[in-house]
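Q: I have 410 residues here and want to know how they pack in 3D. Can you give me a structure?
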Amino acid sequence: MLERTARAIACCSVLSACTAPPPPSYDTTPVDASWGEAGPPTGALWSASPAPSVSGATVARGFFLRKFATVVSPRSMSVAPNGDVFVTSPARSTPGGEGGGSGSIVVLSDDNRDGIAETHTFADGLGDVHAVAVRNGFVYFTTEASAQRTPYTVGLRREMPGMRESVFAYPNNADSRWTHGIDVRADGTVVTTAGVWGTSRECGARPNQGEIFRVDRAGAPSRIVQGLRNPLYVRCHRSDSLCIAAELGDDRGPTWGALEKLIALDDSTQDVGFPCCVTQNRTSPFNSGAFDCANVTAGVATFELQLTPFGLDWEPGLWPAPFHRSLFVALHGSYYTVPKWGGASVVFAQTDATGRPTGGFMPFVLGFGPNGSPLERPADVAFTDDGRLFVADDHAGAIYWVAPDDLRQR
């Protein structure tokens, strides 16, 4: 059973008014869910996999964790229809102090189904790659200057030469961040993010705000969110139009209540209020009446500053309650705590029918930290259709997977 550390994960949904959730009970029956027309898988138990277990890591009761692969500085993941896991390994230094990767997109396959990856280089020469999304016959990815895509067919493990094309050119100013997020909605439209280095002290004219853009199927871009600082990751729901972006707050704001947020995206232009507003109806101390915060978009969840929400994904409906269709988030933790990475963990919250979180986030994977901790710093999470949750640990240079004790292979 997880240690009762929920109080250290100071995060909440807008419905819970930032009150700490009750300690969760993980005494649930492992997977007993509807598996659709194909029925439950009848292959070997994943728990019998020879993939290395991780001593000292803590996961919810009824689940286990194994190491899948070594990848230097893995930052973003996306799962192909056949279960191959695409991972970016940027060479440039990224927020949070990571970097020094291979400057490539890596494909992690598991052809012999032993739970241990075979590693392939899909595309290289990409020192500034950050996000990746395998969707609708393409591999989408971001560089500092643009979002790009290259054709993909199931099982492809090396990019076809000469086939890349630009999808979107990011705004370029001196305050821009190079680390963009990207995903593709169920309707085929692209959603991508652009952050800035600004602080709340720049409220006056609200210069250089972070933004989120939508690119329709015809290639026409439009801005759908403004007033952000650093929307580093975005994930779109598998079956409906909902996308959620993780917005990182002003690092200098602990004394006046700055927050990190999850922002639900829709087709109408939203304003999240940075640098003048903490959130809806809450101004920063530097606002001085320059901007009305009453009408800015509130997050569907907020986190204590410097817990640093990065990648997120929805459980696809195979796990039991309370995890069934819940939203899982990788908290990268704080750079400023002693020891470092305070709050680093994988957490989850139950959701409504639209995929929005309805209550406080609770711990699911613990044991992250510096100096020999079993895990170090989670950067992204992604579910495969077979019921496993993959976790990228960018500081440790590792990819892990988590599964229910009785999960079988198809």
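Q: Anything worth noting?
A: The chain is about 0% helix and 35% strand. Residues 1-11, 13-34 have pLDDT under 50 and may be disordered.
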